[in-house]
Amino acid sequence: MTTPAADSPSTSDRPSRRGAPRRRRTGRWILLSLAVLVLAGAGTAYWLYSGIDGNIKGVDIDRAIGDDRPEKLPTSGQNILILGSDSRAGANAKLDNAKVSGARSDTALVMHIPEGRKKAVAVSIPRDTLVTRPECTKADGSQVASAKRVMFNSIYSQVGPACVVKTVEQMSGVRMDHYVEIDFAGFKDLVDAIGGVTVTVDQDIHDSSSGLNITKGTHRLDGTQSLQFVRTRHGIGDGSDLGRIGLQQQFMIALLGEIQKQDLLGSPVKAYKIADKLTAALTTDSELASLTKLAEFGRSLNGVNPSTMETIMLPVAYDKVDPNRVVAAEPQATTLWKAIRTDSTIPESAKKSPATGGN
Description:
It contains twelve helices and 17 strands.
């Protein structure tokens, strides 16, 4: 059995109490859900490009988890677990000055698409949330025992993506229909493929940790600078994750605007280039692990506008033992997951988080 100590990062990697998550709208989910949504309008064309079909990596979630899963309700819509992996292997080893080792699920969210697929909701799960990890099967077939008080973002690196899916399903009672993962190196290439993204900042930002150094004003960021921008936290605000969330919001809005302005989906050549970079960064469940299947699913999302999605942070409270960690706040979390599970309106009370980040 893995102990909580083994699942926790070093002290230097821990956020301060003032930096603990709070309920805020976050733009980072847009980066991750882009893997599905950018294909929505042009899925009928992408199937022609068989050369990039092999880019997509697949994970057989059903086989790994087995029957130990929540019931799929007839009115539950579609639920997709989207992870942003922050591996330092391969191309990612060059990012952030290679100061972080291993692989982590740096960002996680459950995207709920109601019946009718007109408006979606994204529930982000704070990476520092302490959870009970269920018994899981690793990719090599070995069993990993259940463990309590495990930090959520450690599960990906220690047990694998299928265990992350199983953990989310057991903590929420919501059956995940699909799994989508995109890594940060792929995000870098995607930004470079569209020619960069323009952002405006109201102060100088110098962050030795992320490597970002820009002055107050408007800047056209390339892929490397964009990664630095969304990872920056020490160079802005109080140095907590809350400042980083604000930058992520700003950047993702700018990224979507860039895609719309360039009419990428109207240019076959550029569409191919974007699809090539995007699919190379993707890992999905086995049901979506081909260009035709992903495009077909994307076409079914035509009515969903990412700019109108509601984003909610899972309500959390400071852990009583370790205030640098958070736990799901009750009854808010249970109410939130029930609304997602039954495809119902989420009460405002279920969106409020006791952990405020010290503000």
